[in-house]
């Protein structure tokens, strides 16, 4: 009798243990699925690079870790050697008005490689200059893929190069526009038509060249101001529509 009671107690204990183990296994599966969903909704929503994906995985594997995002270029970015040690001269024609330009690959090889390649591909032909600022900062910004200032997430690169330490960008400067990250340069650039001071605490903007003649054409565009409905009365779409007829570099 006592042996029967002992066997019955043992079976009950084993059944309870199996139930508990099953609950734990289900719970672990739910957590794993949850982490996978998080991974898809966060990392994959922005088409991560292999390094970014690895960083996310590391974070899931080690909850206490805080991996820093790895800077990387996105898209078919020209090699800096295309322009390294070279200087290119050419013409940027806006609304039929030619601006003589020089791009310096000795100071900004990555930027000049990108823009020399884009110019050779006639990327800028027919593109609009979408932004004008007329107070404090005096620039005409051009080169977005959609002609309206939209970023192209499939073509982003860095790092920034040749940034003025004091943040002063003299009239005639040609610099690369970007978003918040120093690896968010793209196809957009701006021409400074009057001495301007830009913030350097966020990394600054790559100076890749200068206008050597014809800058008065940009000043004339700026004199007409911006359209109503812009960011402000001094920052928005140029009141005079500006089209890039051509951008050639040799």
UniProtKB/TrEMBL annotation:
Region listing for Disordered, in residue ranges: 61-82
GO MF entries: peptidyl-prolyl cis-trans isomerase activity
Entry coiled-coil feature ranges: none
Compositional bias ranges of the Low complexity kind: 61-72
The enzyme's E.C. designation: 5.2.1.8
PPIase cyclophilin-type domain mapped to chain residues: 99-249
Keyword Hydrolase: no
Domain of life: Bacteria
Membrane-spanning intervals of the chain: 21-41
UniProt KW keywords: Isomerase, Membrane, Rotamase, Transmembrane, Transmembrane helix
Name by which UniProt lists this protein: peptidylprolyl isomerase
Lineage, top ranks: Bacteria, Bacillati, Actinomycetota, Actinomycetes, Micrococcales
């Amino acid at each position: 009798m006592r042996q029967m009671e002992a066997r019955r107690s043992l079976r009950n204990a084993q059944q309870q243990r199996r139930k508990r183990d099953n609950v734990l296994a289900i719970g672990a599966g739910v957590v794993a699925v949850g982490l996978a969903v998080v991974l898809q909704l966060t990392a994959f929503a922005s088409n991560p690079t292999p390094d970014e994906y690895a960083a996310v995985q590391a974070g899931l594997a080690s909850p206490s870790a805080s991996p820093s995002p790895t800077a990387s270029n996105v898209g078919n970015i020209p090699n800096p050697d295309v322009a390294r040690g070279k200087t290119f001269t050419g013409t940027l024609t806006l609304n039929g008005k030619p601006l003589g330009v020089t791009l310096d690959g000795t100071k900004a090889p990555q930027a000049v490689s990108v823009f020399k390649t884009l110019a050779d591909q006639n990327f800028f032909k027919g593109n609009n200059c979408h932004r004008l600022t007329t107070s404090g900062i005096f620039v005409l910004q051009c080169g977005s893929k959609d002609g309206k200032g939209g970023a192209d997430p499939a073509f982003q690169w860095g790092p920034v190069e040749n940034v003025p330490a004091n943040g002063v960008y003299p009239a005639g400067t040609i610099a690369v526009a970007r978003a918040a990250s120093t690896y968010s340069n793209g196809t957009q650039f701006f021409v400074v038509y009057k001495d301007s001071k830009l913030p350097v605490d966020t990394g600054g903007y790559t100076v890749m060249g200068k206008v050597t003649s014809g800058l008065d054409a940009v000043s004339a565009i700026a004199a007409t101001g911006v359209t109503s409905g812009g960011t402000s009365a001094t920052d928005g779409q140029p009141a005079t529509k500006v089209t890039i007829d051509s951008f050639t570099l040799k």
